[in-house]
Amino acid sequence: MSIAELAQSLLNAADGPHHHPRPLLEGNPLSVSHGRDIQHAQLALRQHRGESLVGLKLGLTTQAQRDDAGVDYSSVGYLTDEMVVTERIERSRSVAPKVEPEMVAVFDSTVENPEVTDAEIVAAIGSLRAGIEIVDPRYESPHFVLPDALADNSSARGAAWSPTGLRPDQFDPAAETVVLEAGGHPALEGHASIILGNPLRVVIEVVRERLQRGVPTPAGFVIFTGNLADQALPVEPGEKVVATFAHLGRIELDVVD
Asked: Of the candidates 128, 188, 126, which has an alpha carbon nearest to the alpha carbon of residue 162?
């Protein structure tokens, strides 16, 4: 299959929803570059049918994850308006959804100057908010392969964030903690310092990477900074997902069929 064909096939699997075989390009495993090309082509397909890009979700945001993958950067997935979740997770829209607690950066001014300082990037963040990401890998095998994950848009299914938050200078983002509860699973505890010592670090990284490609980060853009608990919990209809942050408040979602 070609890049375009794989993008359409993986989008069909996300829409289905259904499992998808590991992608092969001309009979060979994907490279990281191929995975990104497929992801970008999949986003173009979503935009062509009317979806709008609202943000990014980051993976490989802990040092252990990066060491395992043999990289020194975050993986990226696109979030569109169709993926935004407000009150409920619809289980029927996913293959096998799981939830993760995340800190979310919401920009209130555009970052477009390639010479911007770290402090100016942080100042452009209007608020950090409590978030829950819904991940849904379309591959039947759970084994993580970076190019395959990128091609599957980093398993993005849905994203929810609180309506209000705190500016980065109103608390210590690196010291934030969270408790995630879902159904009858033991609660997960998370700490923001797992994100390379401070979640703002990965935000700065990805904003700079975008600027290097000539892509600004616009006002209103959201960036999910990675799983604070380093684990995810599966969800089923009838359950409630609750993420309680020490400073950023509480966000909850009902799981429906």
From this structure: 128
